[in-house]
Amino acid sequence: MNPYCSCLELPIIFLTRMTSNARHSDWLSPIFLPKIKIFMDNSDFSNEIWDRLQHFIPPFGWMELNYTVVKDVVSALPPLPDQQILQAAQKPQDPQCFSCAVVGNGGILNGSGVGREIDSHAYVFRVNGAVIKGFEDDVGSRTSFYGFTAYTMLASLSDTQLKKRGFSKIPKDNTRYILFAEAPRDYAWLDALQKNKDIIKGTLENYRKHPRDDFGDSFDPKKLFVSHPDFMRYLKNRSEPLWHLPEPTDSLYNAFDWSLLQVSAYGFMTDDFYKYSDHYYDVKSSPIKFYANHDFRLEKHLWKHLHRENIIKLYQRR
Known about the structure:
Layout lengths: L16 H7 L23 H7 L13 H9 L9 H5 L9 E5 L11 H5 L3 E5 L8 H4 L5 E4 L1 H9 L1 H6 L10 E4 L4 H12 L28 E3 L2 H10 L11 H6 L6 E5 L29 H13 L4 E2 L4
């Protein structure tokens, strides 16, 4: 399983290289829709929207979700004018043209020495079990955005091996969060987080019950962004000719952020994946595991194609 930026108030000259190249790509332009709403805010719930989205299963809609929970969760989200999550994270001294690094957990990063290069980007995105301590030279030390589902975050925090490697808490200082609401449990988890209460019985019950415990007393709802079902459905439907993953990874959603000037991807599958361990933090070398619900080979093809089209820059250790 697996785990995202958006439109900025910038002059047209600063519109992203990614956007420009996508529009001019014979391969990507037919499926490219730059104005799709990526994240939800409190304007995204009404009875009309509920009626429309309950025809699609999560993460593409709200089918079989609890009406009251969804209403409470979405209505409590802060306004997000123009989807400006990068501007929300921006400091006055930061440049107006952005570059972003999306960092995966692939073994290709072990011994790579690209940590400083990763940290040189304006924003650094990480996902799930993002081990940093002891690997700063290879993966950097900054985390601007941390992407997750409720399950992947809690499973990573409970993973014994990840704890031994130093991942015992989610990034906090100067970090913003992107929740990919893929299932009813994500809405139940978010409802508990927003209301500072325990998760309802039967939801993620093998993990910690109180979501605020992972964020601390200083939790700021303005720093949490939640994927919009329309965007998730758009990615699935528009990308279907080349991408048939039952469950696309968080990192792929990250890379499809149309508003960035330059997107660089590190720690993902390349043609020579067999040379590297499954994860950069593995104590013993372990080959990549292939799963029925995660088509790594097709994902590898997609990364490579995006790189060739100059949509992203894929780190290939060459």
